[in-house]
Amino acid sequence: MVTIREISKKANVSIATVSKVLNGKPGVSKFTADHVLSIARELNYRPNLNARSLKKGQSQTLGIITEDLTVFNTPDIIDGIDVYCESQGYHYILSNLRLNKRYGNHPDDIDIKECTKLINSLTDTLLSKQVNGIIYIGCHSHAVVPTKYSNEIPFVYAYCYSTNPKIPSVMYDDQKAAFEVTQLLINKGHTHIGVIAGLRESIHTTNRILGYQEALYTNNIPYNPRLTLYGNWERDEGYYLSEELIKAGVTAIFAHNDLMAIGVIDYCNKHGIQVGKDLSLFGFDNREISAYCHPTLSTVSLPLFEIGQHATRLMLDILAGHNIEGGLKIMLPCSIIERESTGLPVSKEKNKSEESHETRS
Amino acid sequence: MVTIREISKKANVSIATVSKVLNGKPGVSKFTADHVLSIARELNYRPNLNARSLKKGQSQTLGIITEDLTVFNTPDIIDGIDVYCESQGYHYILSNLRLNKRYGNHPDDIDIKECTKLINSLTDTLLSKQVNGIIYIGCHSHAVVPTKYSNEIPFVYAYCYSTNPKIPSVMYDDQKAAFEVTQLLINKGHTHIGVIAGLRESIHTTNRILGYQEALYTNNIPYNPRLTLYGNWERDEGYYLSEELIKAGVTAIFAHNDLMAIGVIDYCNKHGIQVGKDLSLFGFDNREISAYCHPTLSTVSLPLFEIGQHATRLMLDILAGHNIEGGLKIMLPCSIIERESTGLPVSKEKNKSEESHETRS
DNA sequence: TTGAAAGCGATACCAC
DNA sequence: GTGGTATCGCTTTCAA
Questions:
Q1: pLDDT tens per residue across span A211-236
Q2: So what CATH class is B174-301+340-346?
Q3: B106: Cβ under 7 Å from strand D?
Q4: Which of A1, A49, A50 should be substituted to probe chain B, the one whose Cβ sees the most B Cβ atoms within 10 Å?
Q5: Which residues in B lie closer than 8 A to residue A69 (C-beta atoms)?
Q6: Interchain pair A79, B96: CB under 8 A
Q7: Residue B53 CA distance to nucleotide C9 C1' (Å)
C-alpha cells in the first residue's frame, strides 16, 4: 500500500505538505502541489480511510440495519439511502438481521429477547466501526422497541417507527392513500365499496380503514361496518372474503394488499365475474405481480426510494445539528396506479340496480 | 468513546495488559483478567475496529459490488454472503452501482467507458476502506471486463464471470437445469417440445439450448430447430412466439424465463388452450409471480443464496492461500420446481394424434 | 510556504 | 505476569 510517507520521500517534501496537498488545504505553493499530485497519481495512491477517520474522529459513515434484505421493500429504500449518501459524500455500512430466515414470516414466532440481543450485537459492531448514525429499515411498518443505544448515537427509523415518539421515523401515509383510492372509486360512481383489510392489529390496517371511512364521510356515504372484513394478508383470504362482500352487493373492493386482491381475482374468475367490468378492484403495494395478473391490478405504489432518501436527509440534518424542518415523523405520500381492474365509471343504471339489490338483501 | 486507556487507568494496569485481556491472549493472571473484563463491561467498552485494522493491517472485511441491488437476484446472493461472513467472523461493505436506474434496463444503453469509470471509483473507495477482497455481483450472467485492480486485490464474480478465465466466478448451471427440465417433459411423454429462448447473445440462452438438445439426443429425439424461437425475455414475446410453436404442434413449451412463460399462459387463456392439460409449460427463474399465476408455473429455482455462500467461501479460501478445491469456475445446480403448468403424463392416444398432426403440418 | 511532532486507538515486541 | 513503547497512516498545530 502506498502511503503519504512514500509520496513525501519521492517528492522530497514532508508528509505534512503531502497531506495538505491531498486535502486541498491552503498554504502550499502551486508548484509543490502539482509536483506532489503528479507523484501521488504516479504511485497510484489511495488514502487509508480507516486511518483518516481514526485521526479525525469522524467517519462520514452511516450504519444501516435491515430487518430483512430479501423483503420486497428493502432494496429500494437502500437505493434511496445510497443516492443521498453519495450526493453528500457519506458512506454507509449495511447490517442485515435476516429476520425472515431466522424466525420465519410470522411475527409471533419472533423471540423478542433473542431478537433484541441480535439487534444489540449488530449495533455494537456498527458502533465499533465508528458509524455516526444508524438508519433502521423495518420489513413492515411496526413499532420497534427503542434500543438502549439511542442515547449514544442517533437513530432514524425507515418503514417503521419507534415506540418512543421522540425518535425520528419516515413512513408512508396509509390513510391518505386509502382516502384517495376510495375517493377514486366514489368518483367512478361506486357507493358500495367493500374492504378486505389486513390483520386487525396492524397499523397499516387501521390507517387504511381510517382513510376509507374519511372518504365515505366526505362524500356523505354512510359507513357500513359489514363491508369491512379482516384478512391475513394472504391470497386465499382474499378469495374467501370476496365471496362475502360480493354477496353483500358491493360494486367495488379495496383490498389492503395486492396478494389478497389477486385472491379476489381468483374468486371472480371462478365465478364468471369480470373484474374491471362487473367489479372494480384495488390492491395495495404495487408488487410486481400487480402488473402481470389478469386483469392488471390497480394499486398503490409505495414511496420506497423516497423513504430512503428522506431518512438519510433527516439523519444528516440531525448529525449536522440543523433544525429539523417538518418534524420528526415524516409521512410520505403514496401514488395511485390505475390499471385495468378499476374499470370504467359505473353507469347510472347499474348503480341503481345494485342499490336495489342491496336493499333487498 | 471508551478506550483501552480509560480501562487501564480505572483498573490500574497498563494498556498492554488490557489489550491482552480483551484479545484473550495468554500471559495475564486470571485475577487481573477478570478485573479488567469487569471494568470493560462496566464502562461499556467497544473496540475501535478502524484502529485495530490500522494497526494489524488486516480488516477482515470483504467488499461487495452489486450491479443493481434492486434486481431480484441480488438480495438473496448478499444473504448468502452475509451468512458465510458471519460464520467466519468476516465483515463486508456494500457498494451499489445502481446500473438499472443509471442506464435503464437495456444493456446496449450502457456506456462501457462511463461504467468502467464508475466501477473503478467504487473499487477505489473499497480499497481505501482496506477490504481484503471484492465479490462482484452481476444482475445477469454476462462477461465482465476484467478490472485493472485484479492484481491488487482478489476478485470473485458471482452470477457473472470475467472475460479473463483465471478470475474465479460462481454461477449456476443453466445447461444442467435445461437438461433436467427437458428430461422431465420427455419422461411425461412429450416428444415435441418447443423452446421460447432468451436473447441470442445471452450465455443463458446458449447454455439452456445446449441442455435442451442434450436431453433430446440422450432420448433419441431429433432436434428440430424450428421449435426453438428466440425471444427478448419479455412477456409479450412469450405470447407471440407461443402461437407459432403451438401451430407447429408442440405439446410442451420450455420458456427461458418466467415472464415469457406467463406470456404463453396469456396466449393459451385467450385461445381456450388449457395449460397443464392441453399443453405442458415450464418457465425459468422461479420469480414470485410463478407461484401466483394461473395455473401455477413449473419453473427452475436459482441457487442464489448458495451462490453467495460459495463465492464467499471461495474468496476466503483464496485469502487464506488455500488450495482451491473444485477449480476457479464454480457451477451450482438449480432445482426444478414442478407446479400445475406441467400437468400429467401425456396419454399414448394424445401423443399419437399430436404426432400425426405434426406430420400433417 | 514548509515541516517537526503530537496523537487518534489499538497491537505486539521486548524488557523487567 | 506485567508494562513501556514503537508503530499503523493520517491530520493538524505550531514553530521556523
A1: 999 999 999 999 999 999 999 999 99
A2: alpha beta
A3: no
A4: A50
A5: 75, 78-79, 82
A6: yes
A7: 10
* Cell numbers standing for residue B64: 461487495
Taking the domains of chain B in order of start, what are their residue ranges?
4-47, 60-173+304-336, 174-301+340-346
pLDDT-based confidence at residue B111 (cuts at 50, 70, 90) = confident
d(CA B99, CA B67): 6
In the prediction, which pLDDT does A358 show?
40
DSSP single-letter state for residue B260: H
Cell output for A4: 503519504
CB pairs under 8 A between A and B: 100
Residue to test with chain A: of B61, B68, B94, B153, most A Cβ within 10 A? B94
CA of A191 to C1' of C11 (A): 74
Is B48 in contact with A289 (Cβ distance < 8 A)? no
Residue A78: how many other CB atoms lie within 10 Å: 26
> Of all residues in chain B, what percent are helix, strand and coil, respectively (each to 5)?
50, 15, 35
- Pairing mode of beta strands A133-137, A61-66: parallel
Q: B65 — phi, psi (to 5°)?
A: -110, 120
* The pLDDT value given to residue A323: 75
- Measure the CA–CA gap between A177 and A300, rounded to whole angstroms: 7
- The pTM is what? 0.92
Search chain A and give the residue with CA nearest B262: A292
Does the domain formed by B60-173+304-336 have CATH 3.30.160.270?
no
**pLDDT higher than 60, residue B186:** yes
Fold of B4-47: 434 Repressor (Amino-terminal Domain) (1.10.260)
Out of A29-33, A143-147, B225-229, B231-235, least confident range:
A143-147
Cβ neighbours around A280 below 10 Å, total: 25
Q: Which helix (H) or strand (E) is A133 found in, with range?
A: strand A133-137
Predicted pLDDT of residue A188 = 96
Lowest-pLDDT range of A271-285, B197-211, B290-304, B336-350: B336-350
Residue A29 is predicted with a pLDDT of 92
Mean pLDDT of chain A: 91
Nearest to B70 among A47, A79, A269 (CB): A79
For the record, the C-alpha cell of A322 comes out as 440543523
Residue among A237, A219, A230 at smallest CA distance from A194: A230
